[in-house]
Amino acid sequence: MLKQTRNWSADPVLSVEHLTMRFGGLVAVDDLSFNVGRGDITALIGPNGAGKTTVFNCVTGFYKPTEGRIALRREGAVEDEKIAELTRSGRQYSDGETSPVFLLERMTDFRITEVAGVARTFQNIRLFGGMTVLENLLVAQHNKLMRASGYSVAGLLGLPGYRRAAAAAKETAVEWLRRVDLLDRADDPAADLPYGAQRRLEIARALCTNPVLLCLDEPAAGLNPRESAELNTLLKYIRDEHGVSVLLIEHDMGVVMEISDHIVVLDYGKKISDGTAAEVRSDPKVIAAYLGVDDEEVEEVERDLDVKTGPKAAEGGAL
Amino acid sequence: MSDMTSPSAADHPEGAERLSEERREAMRGEPPFVEAPTTDSRLVRSLKEAGITAGLVALLTLFFFLFRTDIAVGGLALSLDPVTWIVAIAIAFVGRFLLSFFVFAGERPSVGGWKKVAAATARWPIGKALGAILLLVALTLPFLLSTFLPSQNRYLLDLAILILTYVMLGWGLNIVVGLAGLLDLGYVAFYAVGAYSFALLATNFDLGFWVCLPMAGLFAALWGIVLGFPVLRLRGDYLAIVTLAFGEIIRVVLLNWYDFTGGPNGVLGIPKPTLFGLEFSRGEGSFSDFFGISYSPVQRFVFLYYIILALALLTNFVTMRMRKLPVGRAWEALREDEIACRSLGINTVNVKLTAFATGAMFGGFAGSFFATRQGFISPESFTFIESAIILAIVVLGGLGSQLGVVIASVVMIGGIELLRNLTGLQAIFGAGFDPTQYRMLIFGLAMVLIMVWKPRGLVSTRSPSAVYKEKKTIGADLVAQGEGH
């Protein structure tokens, strides 16, 4: 039972180690370490300004972290020794072996999506508004189609190889549109969709890049309860049927508690709690961070913090 | 993403889109706006409006029509011309009244009629039909001209060649500005690179037009990449300024590198293109000699016309084809949102460079055609005004629209020429009116009016590059404009 629920220590797809991000004098993320289990839905939560989106931007390469290592194990578990060796070698990733490892902090943003297989969505939706829903999903398959079109040469000549690849890409796009219930709007411009549909489209677009890890930045923001429930179903489907690990930032606790296998709580750039939904929910530090505490209790909580951080770190290392 | 530090101009259109989206969302299912009940009857209201219009016209034309100062013996003379003045006022009054009474305040809203027209033409692709007609006219133009207007044949053919050159340049720039959304104010640089590549290769190495043409295109594409690198990180106004500077650098280098380019003297004696080795001249081994027809100088113009037509059609074909390829889709995605592109694993550096290189290549082709047509080039042909005209064609036609560029080229280049000999305007402005002196003024006014009427260009809708079931055009308000607009 323990092994099954603690998937993130046994078989992590992503491990963030000692991640620190400073903007001038501001420490947005401070020595943060956590794992994302393969095939898990992991939620990154915390009050506003806790540094969640900064972590996201570091993982997806939009920021270069000041310190720390972000290792993605694309296919299976890899010994720590191998990752340490790769780190020393100065290379960005070890490919061509049975279990490739990618050091995301060394890679540029588009390479992370293209090679390592990490896709993301944005807090304020970033669709290609003037392009149709279908086109949005075809753009997401750019690299695959680019190779198939012989870097445009075969495509310009209209060779059959490219035409097959284009038809297959359209098929993939249509399949995802059916899944997110947008097929009847395939030929509408993306900016014309209602808000909830835009959210779903952005997720479908990210999935068209064929990722192993999907990073969602507040996917339920602005959704009504029915749409939130649909989102839960979609995320579970992605996890169960496609084996895509999901890392999400969310403020909607209903969504977080229902679908998360693993929750990491941040406050002021530090991890204050890490565990299953039940564990996190009953953690006094999480309650303190979210609801605040009385003045008398502050010292108590601080003492508690000191006591707990020591053994907790050791436990994380052992597992 | 709100705390991302990288600046993004794409934030603005997104905000605007969100607003318009919300507005649309809020209005969905609502009945159209209900007009407040009017107190005046239709006739009274129309009369009032017409009166106001007439009053304004009366005021505005007071010193133009009613009082006139003319040069007379011993100074100026003030003359009174109430008839013209009253006629102008009457025209304004009647025109406004008719418009108000029958169109603006008619019982049946005039918009309804437009909607019906739009619905009727929706199934019938007007753009496609117009494109086909234009293509047919373009293909048969030399014959049409020699049949119907033999007296002005040569002049009009020359004008058609000029227009087609601008169509081709417009299509080339459309890739960079319209599709990839990168504002390029120095496009004439590639035109110059193409022209000088051909001219120097032809005069120094004795190569013909058809050998030099691909080389000129490749050189221009190379320079496109050279320009692409420094502007990769630039956005907005800065991008426009650097491309502008690039265009000027090329011109100044051509002007001052005397040993290589001939400086302000330019390059002379550029060979004319041949048809499989047949020259368009008198005598042995010429085109007319080979086919046994009598020599006419128009033959060379017809040949040049078909060359530029073929080059322009090639540009159009490649652009249309590329739009449906992943690279073309990536261009448009880049225009819509660069950050989203990167999040999807698209190497935006390559996308920008291919856009610059492809656009520059067609500019280079057009440049070498220009060199061979003129037989002489100098840096004076490649000033900033050329870039501005080409950009104006693209913007006026509608960013990203191929048909729009054709219409805008005909309107702009043909319009400027037309105004040169529009003596008919003398009937309005008096016998002393010289249209050539006012043509740029009239032309500028016309452009302002068109842009007020259609701010996003003549053809502002975007047609999708991939269709699932039904092809729907996308309104200009949804399409982002990219950097530097």
TrEMBL record, chain A:
Signal peptide: none annotated. Residues 14-293 form the ABC transporter domain. Belongs to the ABC transporter superfamily. GO terms for biological process: D-alanine transmembrane transport; L-alanine transport; L-isoleucine import across plasma membrane; L-valine import across plasma membrane. This is ABC transporter ATP-binding protein. One of its GO terms (molecular function) is L-phenylalanine transmembrane transporter activity. Transmembrane segments: none annotated.
TrEMBL record, chain B:
Keywords: Cell membrane, Membrane, Transmembrane, Transmembrane helix. It is found in: Cell membrane. CDD domains: TM_PBP1_LivM_like (cd06581). GO terms for molecular function: branched-chain amino acid transmembrane transporter activity. Residues 11-28 have a biased composition (Basic and acidic residues). GO terms for cellular component: plasma membrane. The chain crosses the membrane at residues 50-71, 83-105, 126-149, 155-173, 185-202, 208-231, 238-258, 301-319, 388-416, 436-453. InterPro entries: ABC_transp_permease, LivM-like. Residues 1-33 are annotated as: Disordered. It is a multi-pass membrane protein. PANTHER family: HIGH-AFFINITY BRANCHED-CHAIN AMINO ACID TRANSPORT SYSTEM PERMEASE (PTHR30482), HIGH-AFFINITY BRANCHED-CHAIN AMINO ACID TRANSPORT SYSTEM PERMEASE PROTEIN LIVM (PTHR30482:SF20). This is High-affinity branched-chain amino acid ABC transporter permease LivM. It comes from Jiella endophytica. The gene is livM.
